[in-house]
Amino acid sequence: MDSKPQGTRGGVSRAALLGLSGGMMLGGLFLLIQGLRTRLAPSDCAELSEMECGFMRDTAIEVGRTQSVAGAALLALAVAVVVLMRSRMRPDA
């Protein structure tokens, strides 16, 4: 039996997990930055009434909070995948 195809499958799996965790890291970082920008940027209330402006501010804060939490969760999940992948790559000593 040739063990080379099994090693190739392990390399493909490792590359797929690395690509997946890289994408999750980039997506999580983007969401985290967008969430912070949304929460901290002042709302443009030039043509809105006071009640509409308050609603826009509250909505922006909630959307920013949700984006920040989702981005942080994606980053944590990506780091967990990388840690799991690294622990499986180490040879048993």
Helicity level, as a percent range?
Answer: over 70%
Distance between the amino and carboxyl termini: 25 Å
Uncertain residue segments: none
**Strand pairing plus helix content: what structural class?**
mainly alpha
Shape: rod-shaped
User: Cα-atom Rg, whole angstroms?
Assistant: 21 Å
> Sheet bearing the most strands, described?
none
Mean pLDDT over the residues: 82
Beta-strand segment tally? 0
Number of helices: 2
What percent of residues are in strands? under 5%
Helix-strand pattern: HH
Write up this protein.
This protein has helices spanning about 5-40, 50-90. It is mainly α and about 90 residues long. The mean pLDDT is about 80. Helix 1 runs antiparallel to helix 2. Helix content is about 85%, strand content about 0%.
Descriptive keywords:
single chain; 93 residues; mainly alpha
